[in-house]
Amino acid sequence: QVQLVESGGGLVQAGGSLRLSCRASGRTFSGYAMGWFRQAPGKEREFVSHISRGGGSTFYADSVKGRFTISRDNANDTTYLQMNRLKPEDTAVYYCAASSSSLGYPYYDRYDYWGQGIQVTVSS
Questions:
Q1: Binning pLDDT at 50, 70 and 90, where does residue 27 land?
Q2: Percent helix, strand and coil across the chain, each rounded to 5?
């Protein structure tokens, strides 16, 4: 089992920045690729970003490319999502997730473990 706990969400004005953190416990963190997803009210959960187990490969949804940066610190069992130039349409509950592989990274059913989610609200 892997437990994931997100932190760093909150309310920010459009154009501002937030950094989300996801701390893992349980099994070896470096053995899992990590992803971030988000879900806005009335919408389906959507892929945001993914990072491979070693951190050498990263992927982004087109909607966040150039504004968000994913990273990981395997020594501290944590993955991060730096979100810059935030827009009101980024408002959602953000979830981190762990997967044993980077194959199929945009699809939420490829992930084995999920955090509880954290609210990000961007005001206009």
A1: confident
A2: 10, 50, 40
